[in-house]
UniProtKB/TrEMBL annotation:
Residues 131-151 are annotated as: Disordered. SUPFAM superfamilies: P-loop containing nucleoside triphosphate hydrolases (SSF52540). Transmembrane segments: none annotated. Keywords: GTP-binding, Nucleotide-binding. It comes from the Eukaryota. This is NF-kappa-B inhibitor-interacting Ras-like protein.
Length: 218
């Protein structure tokens, strides 16, 4: 049918250190079935398909999200080469209780930038607040820090991440893989950037034919 619009499918890679919660947050986003008791196996590679309503009307857009094994911490983090070529967008995840998992994102970002060949590749950064649950009271060390007026180390890492992200012009979100609604905004934002609104038909010839038909009918 001429009027049937098929949304574009974009490929998004989710990466970061091993164990920061990449799979947990994807499973939560797509199926909403992750709890603290869920058993999650280490990922080799998986693909999730998300159908996203960007709230702009029109057809739902499709994201094909590639879950990766995650990188070991150590010397310079390097993505496998093919991860630098196929994705249309990247979701970089870190754990704000683990400063190295944030440092690793800088290496990944440098690699992505080096290889993107002028094309616009949207990147977002997610801090998965896995250990900082609102309903858990502060640990004795945290209490001691609060009493001594010391800054919370998690806050410090989040501030560092925010500063880095604004320098790099990347959007930073704090999420929690156990709270599904916290995941909607970043992925809707990613999807909207990958699928800019189309105001005109991409087939000029088709537009002309349609205009002619309308005139004849009038
Ligand atoms: N408490 C808590 N645990 C989490 C959270 N996200 C992930 N985990 C746990 O951390 C472990 C590693 O998560 P996983 O998603 O496999 O990490 P990945 O290697 O980045 O894919 C799993 O046992 C998860 O259940 C979270 O937001 N809160
Ligand atoms: Mg995983």
């Amino acid at each position: 049918m001429l009027t049937a619009k098929i949304g574009k499918v974009s490929k998004v890679l989710i990466c970061g250190a091993k164990g920061v919660g990449k799979t947990a947050l994807l499973e939560q986003l797509i199926y909403g079935n992750i709890t603290l008791e869920s058993e999650i196996h280490p990922t080799i590679e998986d693909i999730y398909v998300a159908s996203v309503d960007t709230g702009r009307g029109g057809p739902r857009e499709t994201l094909r999200i590639y879950d990766s094994a995650g990188l070991f911490q150590g010397s310079k983090a390097q993505l496998p080469r093919h991860y630098l070529y196929f994705p249309d967008g990247y979701v970089l995840v870190y754990d704000p209780t683990d400063p190295q998992s944030l440092d690793m994102l800088a290496d990944i970002k440098t690699d992505i930038d080096k290889n993107k060949e002028k094309k616009e590749v949207p990147i977002i950064v997610l801090a998965n607040m896995r250990s900082k649950r609102k309903d858990t009271p502060p640990s004795p060390t945290q209490q001691a820090q609060m009493q001594n007026n010391q800054a919370d180390p998690v806050e410090l890492i989040l501030n560092r991440a925010n500063a880095w992200c604004s320098r790099e012009r990347i959007k930073h979100y704090t999420v929690n893989a156990m709270e599904r609604p916290s995941l909607y905004e970043p992925f809707i934002n990613m999807c909207a950037r990958l699928h800019p609104p189309q105001t005109k038909s991409t087939f000029p010839q088709l537009r002309q034919v349609m205009q002619k038909t309308q005139k004849t009918e009038a």
